[in-house]
Amino acid sequence: MTQNNVRRLWAEGKPVLNGWLSIGNAFTTEILAAQGYDSLTIDQQHGFLGYEALAPMLQAMKASPVTPLVRVPWNAPGDIMKALDAGALGIICPMINSRAESEQFVSCLRYPPHGQRSMGPTRAVFAHGADYGKWADSQVIALAMIETADGMKNLKDIVATPGLDGVYIGPADLTLGLTGRKYPTGFDREEPEMIEAIREILARAHEAGIKAAIHCGNSAYAARAIGWGFDMVTLLNDVRLLAGAAKASVDQARKLIGEQVAEAAAPKNAGY
What we know:
This protein is α/β, with parallel strands linked by helices. Helices cover about 50% and strands about 15% of the residues.
């Protein structure tokens, strides 16, 4: 079976740089997969895509060594199992609020007797090898999102879930869950109480012997999170990367064009 490179990097004590895909398109997936990320996550929760787009996006990643992950829409067995059967090597599940929800999530990623996953890896056997069924339980990654007040309250129990590989922090929802509308929503939190909460999740995860990941809005914050000890950081998604690059290009062009127009309109020195 295909080795999960995220697991390999973690075994070597190295952090994972994760990209994020919200545009339902195989070509944009192929482009980002070639840019050097360790893993790429297809976002079915908030991304502009459904299952019919998910499958070709996973296929497009195959040309690169990037590890394919999927954030499913919810903690629903059907969504989780179909994403795995399509070839995902890891699942990020949103809004895990209790030990029971975490146990249900993990059970969907493991075949009996360790879970309830149904056997039918339609594409996974072609993407990852004919022996997929034998090794999938040890290669597929389960990441539970901690992003609510209940998730924080039940954090110790959640991180102790057998078979859970790590927790994934959604800073925007976590800020809403812990502070309401006190602060603007966003990724890179600077409020002392939010940094304390983020670092508590990190500490509890490591105490339980599992990994911790966080969604970041820029490279500087991602590096800072790695410095805190995070095992995976996610950078900007494809939507923001595209918008940011386009805006920077347009702004630069308008500036240069404005300078040319101003120069052309300036009075010419006749030389006397």
